[in-house]
């Protein structure tokens, strides 16, 4: 017997495990997105968000100023320290970005031009890259990576770099060093968290305008269908008229109509009647898409209200409008609030309808279009900026949800069944 006192049924345990699994599945990427929103682009490209709390080896490009360069024979020489604060630890270094850890600290990394014998037996010049202890002599290989024999006594130094573990370096190059060279080092970077991504998002061009546009779309697109649906739901629940059953069936049928199926016909209708792509057009679009669910939920909720209260009010001479505004509407607030949450979230996070029913110019962008067309287009690889933009865009929906969440379950449970 699974249901005896003190024991939980197997179904309860399975339900709890399923809920826990769903929470974990949603929580992990959300936490990852939040952590990434505080990291810079370089650290995101180097490690995953789960390693954000630990130091990471990162390749850094440094260009020391060439002002202090001197001449040593035919070679320019530049010395100094690669760390701006004078403190740091080098794990590897190099002269090209594709191999930033070509040599270890305490070594000299050099490019030499050597003479090789090609496949036809003709001499040719080729560059080789070698590393050797800074206090030692270079040891040249006998052949190149392609298998061509090298003549070591023909080697001519092109450039070299010696880096100590503390960042002290000596750079040599053919001729005078007139501009800053590019030096790549691999160094351990501490965790770096900051608000730079959020600062950049909030101060970026057009974000304030996109926020105002989103509110301009969302608030009317939430209020209008609720007002219309409340009157329609009361009529379908408490007023007798021919064809009421067919109207209820039509409302249920409209719930299964795909949104994408109606986009083009509605846009053509708007253009025909002169609305076109405008805020008025997108209000009508969201109203049309949200009305079936609103009418269905509110009608099922209202039909479950105590009949005695409504009939007593009518016996006392109250009109249907008075019954609706003074009795039914206040009692239906949980259902109204639950639908308002869903409609607000849906409208705020909408991208498809906004792309279709709003003009393509930047002055009419809502936040989702701003993120998709502007930020994602110009900063496709900058995941920190995109993560910060995502959290900025969900701030208002979260406030609405937490402010009205106590009505959500109550309204849905009452409105989902007759």
Automatic annotation (TrEMBL):
Keywords: Cell membrane, Membrane, Transmembrane, Transmembrane helix, Transport. The chain crosses the membrane at residues 13-35, 210-234, 246-267, 279-298, 383-404. The keyword Metal-binding does not apply. It comes from the Bacteria. Residues 211-404 form the ABC transmembrane type-1 domain. InterPro entries: MetI-like, MetI-like_sf. PROSITE patterns: ABC_TM1. GO terms for cellular component: plasma membrane. It is a multi-pass membrane protein. GO terms for biological process: transmembrane transport. It holds the Pfam family BPD_transp_1. This is Maltose ABC transporter membrane protein.
């Amino acid at each position: 017997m699974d249901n005896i006192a003190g024991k939980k049924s197997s179904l309860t345990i399975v339900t709890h495990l399923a809920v826990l699994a769903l929470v974990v599945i949603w929580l992990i990427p959300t936490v990852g997105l939040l952590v990434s929103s505080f990291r810079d682009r370089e650290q995101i490209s180097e490690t995953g968000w789960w390693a954000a709390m630990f130091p990471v080896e990162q390749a850094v490009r440094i260009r020391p100023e060439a002002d202090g360069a001197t001449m040593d024979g035919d070679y320019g020489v530049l010395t100094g320290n690669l760390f701006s604060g004078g403190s740091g630890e080098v794990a590897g270094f190099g002269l090209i970005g594709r191999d930033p850890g070509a040599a270890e600290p305490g070594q000299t990394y050099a490019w030499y031009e050597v003479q090789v014998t090609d496949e036809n037996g003709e001499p040719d010049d080729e560059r080789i890259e070698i590393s050797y202890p800074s206090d030692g002599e270079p040891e040249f290989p006998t052949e190149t990576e392609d298998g061509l024999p090298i003549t070591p006594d023909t080697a001519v130094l092109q450039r070299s770099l010696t880096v100590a573990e503390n960042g002290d370096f000596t750079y040599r190059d053919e001729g005078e060093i007139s501009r800053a060279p590019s030096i790549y080092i691999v160094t351990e970077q501490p965790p770096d968290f900051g608000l730079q991504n959020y600062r950049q998002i909030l101060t970026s061009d057009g974000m304030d305008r996109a926020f105002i546009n989103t509110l301009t779309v969302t608030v009317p697109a939430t209020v209008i269908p609720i007002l219309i649906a409340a009157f329609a739901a009361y009529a379908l629940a408490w007023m007798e008229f021919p064809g009421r059953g067919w109207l209820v069936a039509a409302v249920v049928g409209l719930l299964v109509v795909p949104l994408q199926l109606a986009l083009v016909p509605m846009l053509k209708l708007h253009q025909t009647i002169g609305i076109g792509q405008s805020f008025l057009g997108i209000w009508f679009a969201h109203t049309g898409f949200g009305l079936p669910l609103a009418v269905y939920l509110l009608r099922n909720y209202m039909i479950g209200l105590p009949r005695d209260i409504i009939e007593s009010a009518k016996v006392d001479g109250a009109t249907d409008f008075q019954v609706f505004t003074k009795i039914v509407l206040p009692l239906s607030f949980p259902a109204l609030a639950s639908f308002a949450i869903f409609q607000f979230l849906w409208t705020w996070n909408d991208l498809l309808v906004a792309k279709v029913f709003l003009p393509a110019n930047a002055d009419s962008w809502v936040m989702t279009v701003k993120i998709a067309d502007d930020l994602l287009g110009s900063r496709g690889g900058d995941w920190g900026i995109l993560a910060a933009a995502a959290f900025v865009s969900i701030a208002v929906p979260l406030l609405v949800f937490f402010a009205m969440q106590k009505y959500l379950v109550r309204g849905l449970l009452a409105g989902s069944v007759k």
